[in-house]
Structures are given as C-alpha cells and as structure tokens.
Amino acid sequence: MISINQKIPIKSEHYQILKKLQKINKPTEARILSEKLKIPYEKLMSGAIFSLHQVGLANFKEKETEIMSLTPEGKKYLNSGLPERQIFNLLIKDNRKEVKLLDFSKEVEKELNFPKKIFFVGISKMKKNRWVVSSKAMGYEQIFVSNESPEKTDEEKFLELFKENNSLPSSKIPKKLLDASNSLYKRKLLVKEKKMLRIIELTSEGKEISKENINLIEEEIKLISSEMLKDGTWKEKLSKLKSYKVDALGPNINAGKYHPLTIIINEVREVFHSMGFEEIKGPIVEEAFYNFDCLYQPQDHPAREMQDTFYLKNPSEGKLPKKKVVDMIKNTHENGGNSGSTGWGYKWSEDIAKKILLRTHTPATTIRRLSHITKNTKLPMKVFCVDRVFRNESEDRTHLAQFMQIDGIVIGKNLTLSDLIGQLVEFYKRMGFEKVVTRPGFFPYTEPSMEVAVYSKKLGAWLEMGGSGIFRPEVTYAWGIRDPVRVLAWGLGLERLALLKLQRNDIRDLYQSPIQWLREVPY
Amino acid sequence: MPSLTLKIERLEKLVGKELNIDDLQYDLQWIGLDVDDINEQEKEIKIEYNPNRPDYSSPEGIARSLKGYYNLELGLPKFQVNEGTERINVSPKVRKIRPFVVGGIIRDIDLDEDQVGTLMNIQEALHWALGRDRKKVAIGIHDYDQVKGPYIYTTVKPEGVKFRPLHMEAFEMTPKEILEEHEMGIRYAHLIKDAEEYPIIYDAEGKVVSLPPIINGVYTTVTDKTKNLLLDLTGTDFNAVNYSLNIIATTFADMGAKLETLNVVYDDKTDEILKVPNLSARKMQVHIDFINSYIGLKLTANDIIKYLRKVRLEASTTKNKNILNVKIPAYRVDFMHEVDIVEEVAIGYGYQNLTPVVKEGGFGKYHPAEVFANLSRDIMIGAGCLEMVNSTLSSQKDYEKLGLKFDEKEKIILSNPVSEQFNTTRENLLVGLMKNLAFNRSAEKPFKLFEVGDILLLDRKKDNRARRELHLASITLSEHADYSEIKSLLDHYFRTLGILDDIDIKPILHPTFIKGRTGEIYYRKKKIGLIGEIYPQVIINFGLSYPVAAFEINLMPFFKDHEE
C-alpha cells in the first residue's frame, strides 16, 4: 500500500487516463475502454494500466469469455431480414394465400437472388415457425399461408442485438435467446470466439487521489522534429529526448548486395588481370571436337561417355572447322601427325567429333585461343577463362551438374616446368595461399602434368586445388604451335574455394541461395 | 580415379624395407599416388592412382616404383620368361569380330588370399582402364592342367556349341542362351550379339575354354589346388591386349611364379610365330637439351640417366652427345612422345626440388561482357536489389509454369540427363528468379532481386548451332509489387547508363504477364526485352501468393562482344 501522503510519480499522459477512469468510475472491459478513450488497446494496457497498476492506483481482472459476432452473411441479414422473413414477405405479396413450391422457388431465385439451398432453409424455417403449411395432395408440393402477420422470432430478436454492437460477450445475451444463438451459429451466420477479457477498475486510492498527491512526469519525446528545429522549441525538448540503448541492433534493412560467388569470381579475375592475363570467353554449347578431340582425348575415353557428359539431342551435330585443321587433329589421334608422337593408333571419326554437348571443362575455350596464334602474334600471350562447365551428375551436398571452372594459359617461347610452378606459386599467393606444392599428376592433354595443393591457414590443412601442366605437342602442333613455343596451363574449380571462404557445407546453396543467408553473409 | 588398398606389411616385404606409415604417406605423392585414407590399426593405406598407370593396380607395381624412389633398386626391373611349347592357333574368322589374342603360361603358383585379391583387382582395373569395359581387352585366367593344347581361337554360331559356363555350372548352355540368361552374358552381350558368329577358344579335345569377352568354361575354374595357369587376353586393339598381358605377367613374376611363353599362330603361318609375353623393354630416343629446356634445368647425360633409373627406366649415351637411348619397362603404357620421358626425368629429379621461376610481364585485359555485367550489377545494387546467381540448366516444367509453350524443335534439349530436374538450358533469367522466390517464400519480404548472366539460344548459323546472350533481369515481390515499381527500376537502370531517351516501351500481350501491364522494351528500334506484372496463374504455378513484377533485357547491344 502506498501512503497517500507520498507524492506518486505518474507520466502526464497516464494521468489523463486516470482522470478519465475516475470519471467513468466503474469496472470497465479494456477493449471497450480503449474504444471509448480512443487509445490503441496495446498502448492502453502495456502503458497506462500497467503503470497505474504498478503504483497501486488501478487493478485489472482477467476473465476468459466467449465473444459472439456476425459473419458477413449474418451482417447482410441484419439489414435485409433473415431469408425466411424475406421469402415470407414475397409470398404474401398481393394477398397471395398459396403457391406451387416449384414455381415459387424460381420466383424467389429471380426476385431475391437466393440459391436453392437458402430457399429450402427459408421454407423449412417458415414451416417450423408455423407461418406456412405444406401439402402434396395435388401430386406436387404446395405452400399455404397459415399466419398472415407473424411476430418477430427469437432468431430475429437475437440478430437485432447486433444493431448497436459489433460483438457481444455470451454473458450479455438474454437467456431466452440462447437457443436462437445456437441455431444461428449452426446456420453459419454467427461466430463464437474465446477471448481474454480484462476488466479494469481503480483501487480505492485510485478513486480518491487528486492532483496534489501526484508527481507528474513529463513525457519523453522520440525525435527532434522539423517543426521543433524551425520554431526553436527543440531547446526545451532536448532534455526530454529519449535515450537509446546505443548497443542494441538496429532493425534489419533489405539492402542491395553482390552474390558472394560474384565477389569471389571477381577476385579471381583481378588476380589474373594483375598478373597480365586477358579474359576470354567461349561457347557453352560446344562441339566434342573442341571439348575433347583438340585436347587429345581419344574418342573411346570413358570421360566422353554419356553418363559423364551432357550431349544434346537438339542441336545434335555441329560444323567442324576447315578441313586442314580437322585433318591435323585426325592424324594426331591416329598416328601422331607432325607432333612427333605415336598417336593413339585408332580410327578417328568425324561424326563423333561433330557431336554437340555442354562444355565439360574450360580448356575447351582456352584451346580455341591457340587457333588465333600466328607467326606474327606477340608472345608471351597470357589468357584465362572463368566460366560455367557441366557434368551429367545428380546434385547433392557435394555435387553439382553445373559449376565454375577457372583456367589460365601462358603461350610463350622456351617456357619450362619451373616457369609453370612459378606462375602457380604467384597465382595462389595472390589468391591468399602462401604455400603451394606441386606433385606428379595426369591429364590427357598435358605432359608433364602436376597436381596442385595449397595450404589453408584457416583449416590448417593442405587442399587439393586442381591441375596443371604443359600442353602436349599432340595438342599444340595441330595449331602450328611448335617447340620451343609451349603452353603452360592450370585450372581449378571455384566452388571448393567458395565453400571454404563462405564456411558453407552444401554446395547447392551457391546456385539456389537462401535469401536470408545472402542478406547476412559477409564477403 | 581408380583406387587400391595397400597392406603395409606386404608392401614392406615387396620393397625390402621397413616402412613407416607417416613417411609413406609423404613419399607416395612423389611417385604420382594420392593417399585417400589411412587405417592405422589395420596398417593399411588406401591410395588412388592415375588412369595412365594401370601398372599401379597392384602392390607389386607400386613396390617397383618405391624401390627406385628409395634408391634400393634402380633401372629396369628384371623378369625371366622361359621358352614354352604351348600353342594357340588363330582362325582368320576372328578378324571381323575380335582379331587379337595373346596369353601365356604361369607355372608354380602358390598364391595366398591377398595375392588372389590382387589378381582380381588387376583384372578389373585392366578391363576398365585399357579394356574399356572388356571392349578392347578381355582377360581369362584358367587352370592350365584341366585342358590340353594346342588351343584354337575361332568363332562359333550362336547355337553352334553347348558348354557349362562359370557361375552357372549346372547348365549346358549355347552362347545364345548365355547372352540371354547368364548374368555376365546379359551385361556384355552388346559387345558381340550383332555378329553372325561369336569368338570362342577350344582346347585340343574340343572343350570350351572361354567365350570371350563374356565368360570362361567351367573346366578351367581356378581353385586353391591350381598350380599352373593359362592366360588368354583377347581384344580389338593389339597394343591394349599386349600391355594388359605385360602388366599381369610382371605381377605374377613379382609374386614368385615362373613365366612361360605361349606361341600364337595366326592363319597357320607357322613361320611367323608370336611368342608372348614378350617383356623386353621398349626403346625411345630423347634429346638432352629438349629435357633441360622443358624442365628448366641444366642436367648432364649422367644426371638424366640417374633420374631415369630412379623411376625404373634405363638410359644410355649414344654417339650423338645430345641423344640418349631410353628403355621403357614392358608394363608401362604411357609413352607416346619424348615429353613423356621429360616427365619421368622431372619425377626422378623430384617436383619438390624444382625452383619456381617467376617471369613477369603481359598486359591484363578485361572482357567487355564482364565489364558491362559488373556495371549493370553496380546499378542494380545501388537501386537496392539483391544479386542472385542461378543455374544454366533448366527444365520443360519450369517453362510451362511461366505459361510458355515448349516446342522441343526450338529448344536446346539434353540427350540423357541423369536428373529429371533438368532437360534443357535457360533461355531467360526470369525462370531462375521465379524459382528463387519460390525457394525463399517464407523469408522476410519484400524481395527485390536481380541476376546478370548468360542464357542460351539455338542459332543454326553458328558452327556450334547455339549462342550465348548476356541478360539482366530483375524481379520484385511484396504486398505492393506492381508495374510502376518495376518500371522505376528499369528507368533507373537506363537513366544511369545515359540511354533512357533511346528506350521505347510498347504494350503487348504475353502469357507470362498481365494484359495492360506488359510492355516490350526497344532500344533504338531493336527489341531487347520485356517488362510487366506477372500473371496470377503463373504466380500460383510457382507456389507464391504475392504480386510479382519483373523485367528482362538482352545486354548484347550495349557492348562489343568477343567469343573465341
């Protein structure tokens, strides 16, 4: 209990509410109060009532109550009358005493626009209320008026309760109308909802307290308005400006942002550009000729089979380049051509080379650059390709049917395996990996071939990072690139790098990304 | 990559050196092996080897390389092959279907369980790596004492003989029945079933030894009592069958068995007998300056000989100071060119011992498409749009969800995708963005997304019958997403590029968009895209329940593209 002699601190806005409650001077339901005082319910309860309750001036009791309100259909009948009343009024029009049910149903549909279902509900209500009786004596159903001026039914009386109120607690319904309410509920004209009612009442102190016993607290303001700045009132308001919890998180904003893959791809691009490389692009829909044959993959190589490669049904066959080039490739496969190799020693087929597929690796594009090299081309030439490649695989956490591959080549005179290792060390250093190790590997189109691993400080482990090598003479001679001009090449997948960087473990997230992740992911 | 599990104890016996599992893990990489898994308790190490080294399909093969790496044994491994008298006659009838056969006799075998496992592993590895799943090479291993030479390799009509095949010993079957009913017959039927006659090997008494490349007869089943073996390798590529024989024969030799030649006589030409296995080394010449200029070293002839001996090759000097004669062991299949020797020298020298050389120079050059793509991204991000990256692969279903007709003749169609998720490629970015909305339907709204990326279209004029187009698309979803919102984004994009005055929008009807709220976008009278509010049924097709608006434009007119 609070001594009346003590001044009680109350915010001035809450004092206004206290005064109104004193005036009402009886227990009042919170929602009704909120309507009366025109204060939003939440603000009233969590602000004023809660504060007044805390200083012992107000109390509230909670009570679960059933609230009734009309459905949209019920509201319609509140104005126009229940269907049975409307139908009855139509029936007795022009002092009519009897109708044929079938004809009448059509009339009702036309005049009142009631569907059959409502019509029969109306008729059965009229019979039940003994406004009409029916007979099938003539072989068809007839309706006869039995009460020409029926009184209001309970259902009608009940409906009228809602003329004044949108909703009513069950406790306010007169007992004799309860049956009618159930009937309307069944007719889906009425809904019942359980609601928590909060009855607000002032304590005896609350009823008696007057301004002298209250210490009014001025309200806080949330911001300095443009008005205040113009009229100078900011000077007195500044002290009332609400302080913020400065370390709280601000609300979310949905900002525009790069996809993290773009960021990583652009980083790779910058590394290549900074090392003097030119970016090139090539067809995604590619001919087997460039994808495999130019890279000295024999035509019966398992990697060329359907289960690994997306061949196309449409378009299925492409056009090969000039005969001179095709013959070079053919000879290289069959007997080594002019490359000094034995070749694979099988019969090369033009039809297999013409097949169209989705590029399985980016060397399909870098190899195309070799066709542009002439005697006059300035060497060394450094080009790279970062683009999409495809494998015929089912997708899961670690596999994609489509992914990004990165490929770099250097075409130049007297290039060596030591130069290649130098390029790799420099490339991966710029990519953020200090330690690089190369070891024997195998690719059909390079010799010597090397596998590349880099040391990740983040994981404290070596990561396989792709392959590299010097293009075989069988690959370069067909394009007139002869020793001592050689082509250094290396390639790697991007997604592995991306998952590592983004600390993600489902590779599918990269191409079907959860938006919430994109909004939050740091670059 | 093919793999193999090595037992340390067995490897130690073969190498003749105590091996520490940690050291081994480090050492194996320098002879071209990847360590996949280590089982400390069982003292096993699982390795992967490259497909050009099928000789690594046995611990015996790996031990040969390791002995060189550890300097325990250098130069060519030695194998003894005794002259044999056994003979196989080859009928000209096999020429059309499976022309080549080689083989050999293996005497005094005494194999333990591990070694039997190794043989099965080699057989499988060779069937795959060199045999292309038995097409080019099929290997038969038989109990030599159960049959009698000389043998004949010929052909037989599909119903021309009956015999009991391995794994279905209870039944006398014709080759035709085997192809239709036997597990192996069904699996490999495609290799011979279209021929009029099938390849077959009989012994002197007419017993069926083998129906290559399908199955052996039951007489020659190898058991734990088998002492001597007959090998047959048939195929369509002589080098492939011969290399496969060499790999198996050298492994048997390393297991302690005695090798004996088989005399192969083609077409009754008894003066041209082929004696196999022939394990003599292959010869190649290599230039010292070529090796040095390739690796970036200054090795002498002696250095190179030393490093080649380390990787189990042999080399010797010639009159020409720049040329070496190199001998390559019979089990190595990967030598086609001098550069293959270069790699061996580099491995012998050790990749880990090479000094990186950094040559600077060159002018970096951006690709115009990427420059324009990044500019477009910057503009859209500045307008508050979140970038998406979607797959190029797409499906007919997705097109139909957009209300578009899908005519296979006008689309890029994949032949046999393993996943039903995709059977075509995207020809617009909108489909991916709609899927993004569907995938993220429960995330906090509003959504303002965009993508810049390549789409693919048929193009009969090009050699590859298709072309790439760089597109930009943007999509909005919220309670209030509508035409005017998406139009503001489009206007902002063109205004920032400074070409708003060159753009015209004309109203059109389109099944993906709502009538009266759809426009075709023109740049200097050239149609470049579409903008509109998405048709409600399309929204529902993607499982969404908010209004959606979008635009998509082709960016190709805005930069000078270059494709290799």
Report on this model:
The complex is a heterodimer of chains A (523) and B (564). With 523 residues, chain A is α+β, with helices and mostly antiparallel strands. The radius of gyration of chain A is 43 Å and the shape is elongated. Chain A has 21 helices and 19 strands. In chain A, strands 10-14-15-19-18-17-16 form a seven-stranded mixed β-sheet, sandwiched between helices. In chain A, strands 2-8-3-7 form a four-stranded antiparallel β-sheet. In chain A, helix 1 crosses helix 3 and helix 8 packs across helix 9. In chain A, strand 5 and strand 6 form a beta hairpin. Chain B is α+β, with helices and mostly antiparallel strands. Chain B has four domains: 67 residues, 2-Layer Sandwich (Phenylalanyl-tRNA Synthetase, Chain B, domain 1), CATH 3.30.56; 196 residues, Phenylalanyl-tRNA Synthetase, Chain B, domain 3; 70 residues, 2-Layer Sandwich (Phenylalanyl-tRNA Synthetase, Chain B, domain 1); 191 residues, Bira Bifunctional Protein, Domain 2 (BirA Bifunctional Protein, domain 2). Chain B contains 15 helices and 28 strands. Chain B has a seven-stranded mixed β-sheet, with no helix packed on it. Chain B has a seven-stranded mixed β-sheet with strand order 19-23-24-28-27-26-25, with helices on both faces. In chain B, a hairpin with a 2-residue loop joins strand 26 and strand 27. In chain B, helix 9 packs across helix 10. Chain B starts with a strand and ends in a 10-residue tail after the last strand. The mean pLDDT of chain B is 95. Strand 12 of chain A pairs antiparallel with strand 21 of chain B.
